[in-house]
Design a protein that fits this description.
CATH topology of the largest domain: Rossmann fold
CATH superfamily of the largest domain: SGNH hydrolase
Radius of gyration: 24 Å
Strand content: 5-15%
Low-confidence stretches: none
Largest sheet: 5 strands, parallel
CATH class of the largest domain: Alpha Beta
Oligomer: single chain
CATH architecture of the largest domain: 3-Layer(aba) Sandwich
Helix content: 40-55%
Number of domains: 2
Order of helices and strands: HEEEEEHHEHEHEEHHHEHHEHH
Shape: globular
Number of strands: 11
Structural class: alpha/beta
Number of helices: 12
Length: about 375
């Protein structure tokens, strides 16, 4: 009759086997993950979920970028690094390093992901302001595709804790559309701004987290055709255009001489958001300033369309500012004075080029110094 092995001995073998497998498997998986991460096709997702702004860039992200983002320029690259907040520039600390702290808030135009830190306008501004005396600290608080709603929420829930002397909000036409249409921050029945429940469900957030953490996961989903962790997934949960014959140019309805009622509501929504930003600044002794940044489409497309008007956002904000009295820098007006305003934008895309960043830096540096 065979002798039975004691049960505790079997358990020891099982636990020992699992332990040995784990000791071997974990380093092997980490090595595979690192190896895959060097391939841009399997790089970890650069956006992370945020309970306030839905998405933001991953803090301390590093990646090789093509300079200017220009097709055919792949040999000319630079190292893009984000700080502890997921923004461009130096790490944020609550302790000041200079006498004056300025936060510049905005979207991809402010983020300037196609250029190194020292070439985007926020980096240039700090250098310009400190040429004579080291007095200014300029903090870039931006993320691609943020609307006015997300900029406001980031300021209210995080930015104000860093106690700047000035808050500069850089607004361009797409901020109006993206903020209003998403309905992430809406005007409730009491005529008060309220953050809506996030539409990105728990399962999606878990898979998004995996895309942030694992290149193995990125490899697997690339083979099965999924895109968890990519910005394109947001279109599953949010609408970004008016749906008013704007299939090729989502901002076009904003420039109509006779506004659709829905677009008119979007402009009213902007006034509500700006008034709320202004109120927070007043309560915290922060000077609030507004910068209107034109879009490429105004000088390239709208100018040729009958029934549409360039500078619509500029005119609207100038008019409503008679009530709000926010210090205003209108860069649409300044750009219109140039012989060729299109020279400020990338010809292969729609963002600011190096000349555009230089242009904004020159004007905004002076604006910051105005009392």
């Amino acid at each position: 009759m065979p002798i039975k092995e004691p049960m505790h001995s079997i358990r020891v073998r099982i636990v020992g086997g699992i332990l040995i497998f784990t000791i071997i498997a974990i380093p092997l998986l980490l090595l595979i993950d690192y190896s895959l991460s060097t391939n841009p096709n399997y790089a970890k997702a650069s956006y992370i979920f945020d309970k306030h702004t839905i998405w933001k860039l991953k803090p301390k992200l590093k990646g090789i970028k093509v300079y200017e983002g220009k097709p055919g320029n792949e040999e000319n690259t630079f190292l893009l690094t984000l700080n502890n907040m997921g923004f461009r520039g130096r790490h944020w600390t609550k302790n000041r390093t200079k006498k004056q702290r300025v936060i510049i808030l905005g979207d991809s135009y402010v983020a300037g992901l196609d250029y190194p830190d020292e070439e985007i306008f926020t980096g240039q501004i700090e250098s310009r302001l400190n040429e004579v005396q080291e007095e200014y600290e300029v903090l870039n608080a931006s993320c691609p595709a943020w609307g006015i709603d997300q900029s406001l929420l980031r300021w209210e829930n995080e930015g104000i804790a860093f106690k700047p002397d000035q808050l500069i909000f850089v607004i361009n036409p797409n901020d109006v559309r993206e903020g209003y249409i998403k309905e992430h921050l809406f005007v409730n029945g009491l005529n008060v701004l309220e953050q809506a429940k996030n539409r990105v469900h728990f399962k999606e957030r878990c898979l998004w987290y995996m895309a942030n953490k694992s290149s193995i996961f990125q490899y697997i989903q690339s083979k099965v055709g999924y895109e968890f962790g990519s910005f394109e997934r947001m279109f599953e949960f949010y609408t970004f255009n008016f749906g008013l014959d704007d299939r090729t140019d989502w901002d076009r309805p904003l420039f109509a001489q006779e506004l659709d009622p829905e677009v008119a509501k979007a402009y009213i929504y902007v006034k509500k958001c700006l008034a709320h930003m202004q109120a927070i600044c007043s309560e915290n002794n922060v000077q609030f300033k507004l910068v209107i940044l034109p879009s490429q489409t105004e000088f390239k497309n709208i100018i040729h369309l009958e029934g549409y008007e360039m500078g619509r956002l500029s005119k609207y904000l100038t008019a409503l500012n008679k009530d709000l009295k926010i210090p205003l820098l209108d860069l649409f007006e300044e750009a219109s004075k140039l012989e060729n305003p299109l020279s400020l934008f990338q010809s292969w895309e729609y963002h600011l080029n190096k000349k555009g960043h230089d242009f904004v830096a020159a004007h905004l540096s002076e604006f910051i110094q105005e009392k």
